[in-house]
């Protein structure tokens, strides 16, 4: 079932996959669409959930509009209201996972928010664990130059999203969680193939820093949990049954 949704004048596409029971709202990653969730949504329905997937603004069939985190959260809230979702579990992948983490900071009544492998990119030398000051600075410069080159030719709307990601302090967001928040990491070595061999050590150093930062947050914040899966960047597509079991386990807690 599809119902028209408008958020701040922007049309937002969403789809109710049917089912009954606990409502689940599914958010895709950057450059993707709600159809990433079709298989997983079918598993949710069979397991007794009611999933609704949506296209984030500027993606899929949703309208093009300036990106900001608050605007994206407003879109999620509009979909939840229009579809009559009661205290939905919010599960997001990559960009959508970051939105889910922000949702957790504003909705203490949410039973669970899940960020599937949404870790962002390095933006400063201090994010390269195990490298001395000079090596970390060089790694940051090279990584930034590579990512900038990778972004050449992309639409300005997508580059705006990337700038917002770079400006977001995810670990501050995690520490602000007001409901249970699960952060799931895939195998970072699978994503390393995006980078040339010369940047592999820099990427590994950034991933080590990310793991350490997340571990510290989990120790400090009882509401935040972490899990790792032997998948690449798309665990909900590569291993949907495993992600479903993970969802079950953490909801039961």
What does this structure look like?
This is AB hydrolase-1 domain-containing protein. It holds the Pfam family Abhydrolase_6. It comes from Nonomuraea monospora. This protein has 253 residues and is of the alpha/beta class. It has a single domain, classed as 3-Layer(aba) Sandwich (Rossmann fold). Helices cover 45% and strands 15% of the residues. The protein has 10 helices and 9 strands. The chain has helices spanning 38-46, 69-82, 95-106, 133-150, 156-167, 170-175, 188-191, 200-220, 235-238, 240-252; strands spanning 5-7, 10-12, 14-16, 23-27, 50-54, 89-93, 113-116, 181-185, 224-228. The strands form 2 sheets. Strands 3-5-4-6-7-8-9 form a 7-stranded mixed sheet, with helices on both faces. It has a two-stranded antiparallel sheet with strand order 1-2. It starts with a strand and ends with a helix.
- The CATH superfamily title: Alpha/Beta hydrolase fold, catalytic domain
Largest sheet at a glance?
Answer: 7 strands, mixed
Which series of helices and strands comes N to C?
A: EEEEHEHEHEHHHEHHEHH
The DSSP helix count reads 10
What is the count of structural domains?
1
Q: What's the β-strand tally?
A: 9
Order of strands in the sheet with most strands: 3-5-4-6-7-8-9
* CATH fold-level assignment: Rossmann fold
Can you tell me the residue ranges where pLDDT is under 50 for at least 5 consecutive residues?
none
* Averaged pLDDT: 95
Distance between the termini: 31 Å
At the first level of CATH, the class is: Alpha Beta
- Radius of gyration based on Cα positions: 18 Å
Query: Which CATH architecture?
Result: 3-Layer(aba) Sandwich
Query: How much β-strand is present in the residues?
Result: 15-25%
Broad structural category: alpha/beta
Tell me, briefly, the overall form: globular
> Helix content range of the residues, please?
40-55%
């Amino acid at each position: 079932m599809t119902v028209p949704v408008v958020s701040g004048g922007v049309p937002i596409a969403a789809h109710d996959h049917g089912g009954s029971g606990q409502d689940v709202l599914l958010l895709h990653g950057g450059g993707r669409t709600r159809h990433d969730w079709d298989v997983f949504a079918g598993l949710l329905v069979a397991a007794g959930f009611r999933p609704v997937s949506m296209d984030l603004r500027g993606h899929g069939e949703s309208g093009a509009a300036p990106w900001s985190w608050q605007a994206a959260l407003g879109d999620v809230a509009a979909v939840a209201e229009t579809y009559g979702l009661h205290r939905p579990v919010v599960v997001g992948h990559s960009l959508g996972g970051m939105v889910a983490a922000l949702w957790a900071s504003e909705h203490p009544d949410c039973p669970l928010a899940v960020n599937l492998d949404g870790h962002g990119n390095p933006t400063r030398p201090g994010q390269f664990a195990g490298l001395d000051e000079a090596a970390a600075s060089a790694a940051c410069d090279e990584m930034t130059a590579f990512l900038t080159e990778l972004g050449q030719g992309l639409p300005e709307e997508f580059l705006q999203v990337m700038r917002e990601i770079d400006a977001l302090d995810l670990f501050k967001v995690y520490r602000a969680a007001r409901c249970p928040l699960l952060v799931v990491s895939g195998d970072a070595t699978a994503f390393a193939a995006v980078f040339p061999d010369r940047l592999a050590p820099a990427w590994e150093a950034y991933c080590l820093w990310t793991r350490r930062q997340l571990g510290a947050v989990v120790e400090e914040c009882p509401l935040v949990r972490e899990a790792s899966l032997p998948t690449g960047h798309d665990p909900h597509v590569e291993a949907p049954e495993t992600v479903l079991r993970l969802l079950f386990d953490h909801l039961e807690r």
